[in-house]
Write a structure and sequence with these properties.
Helix content of chain B: under 10%
Strand content of chain B: 35-45%
Order of helices and strands of chain B: EEEEEEEEE
Largest sheet of chain A: 7 strands, mixed
Number of strands of chain B: 9
Largest interface: A-B, 24 and 27 residues
Shape of chain A: globular
Oligomer: heterodimer
Distance between the termini of chain A: 37 Å
Shape of chain B: globular
Strand content of chain A: over 45%
Chain lengths: 119, 112
C-alpha cells in the first residue's frame, strides 16, 4: 500500500489549495480515505473522509463550507481542496487509507503535504 | 466535536512502563469500541499502534496495550525503549452526521 501526495504549496490568504494523493497497492474503491492535518507544533486534526466507491463524503463540521473531497478512479487519485485559506490553515496535510472496514481507523498514510498560507 | 483530552506529557526510564489516558464522552470514546492510538516521531507521519481499543496491527510489539473504561481509554507502553520517545495520539469514531472522527490532544512521551 502506498499513498503519494503532491508537493508543498505556498498560498496567500483567501486563495484555495488542492492536494492530490495517488494510491497504489490495493483495490482503489474498496477502502475509505481520510484527510488529516497538523499545524506546526500542534496535534492531529481530522478533516474528512471519502468513500471512493460512489464518492460520498463525511467531514468535520469545522470545514463544512470550505472542504471538497473528490477522487478520480481512472488515475487512482484522491483530491482535497480547501477554500478561503487563512494563516490558520498553515499545516501539513495527510491523506490516509483505513485499515480495513469503512469505520476502521486510518492505517496507511501519505508522506504529508506542507501548505503555507501567507497573510 | 471537541478533541479528546490527553495529558501533555508522560515519562519513564528504560524498562519501565508508562500509561497515557484519553478522556472523551459518551458521544465518542464511551459510545464506541473504536478507540485507536497513534505514535508519531518528529517529522514523520503517524503510525497506527492500537485499534478497536486493544488490537495491534501486524508488526506492532506487544509492549503496546490498550484498554477502555467508560469514557476513558488508556495506552500502556511496557518495557520502555529509547525509540518509544514520541508523540502519542488517541482517536475515536464519534457521533455526528454521516461520519465523524476525532483525535486526542496528544501526549509527548519522554524516555529518561
Amino acid at each position: 500500500v502506498q499513498l503519494v501526495q503532491s508537493g508543498a504549496e505556498v498560498k496567500t490568504s483567501g486563495a484555495s489549495v488542492k492536494i492530490s494523493c495517488v494510491a497504489s497497492g490495493f483495490y482503489f474503491i474498496s477502502y475509505h480515505l481520510h484527510w488529516v492535518r497538523q499545524a506546526p507544533g500542534q496535534g492531529l486534526e481530522w478533516m474528512g473522509v471519502m468513500n471512493p466507491n460512489g464518492g460520498s463524503t463525511g467531514h468535520a463540521q469545522k470545514f463544512q463550507d470550505r472542504l471538497t473531497m473528490t477522487r478520480d478512479t481512472s488515475t487512482r487519485t484522491f483530491y482535497m481542496e480547501l477554500n478561503s485559506l487563512t494563516s490558520a490553515d498553515t499545516a501539513v496535510y495527510y491523506c490516509a487509507r483505513v485499515l480495513g472496514t469503512p469505520d476502521s481507523p486510518p492505517r496507511f498514510w501519505g508522506q504529508g503535504t506542507l501548505v503555507t498560507v501567507s497573510p | 466535536q471537541s478533541a479528546l483530552a490527553q495529558p501533555p506529557s508522560a515519562s519513564g526510564s528504560p524498562g519501565q512502563s508508562v500509561t497515557i489516558s484519553c478522556t472523551g464522552t459518551r458521544s465518542d470514546v464511551g459510545g464506541y469500541n473504536s478507540v485507536s492510538w497513534y505514535q508519531q516521531h518528529p517529522g514523520k507521519a503517524p503510525k497506527l499502534i492500537i485499534f478497536d481499543v486493544n488490537k495491534r496491527p501486524s508488526g506492532v510489539p506487544d509492549r503496546f496495550a490498550g484498554s477502555k473504561s467508560d469514557n476513558t481509554a488508556s495506552l500502556t507502553v511496557s518495557g520502555l525503549q529509547a525509540e518509544d520517545e514520541a508523540d502519542y495520539y488517541c482517536s475515536s469514531y464519534a457521533d455526528g452526521n454521516n461520519y465523524n472522527f476525532v483525535f486526542g490532544t496528544g501526549t509527548k512521551v519522554t524516555v529518561l
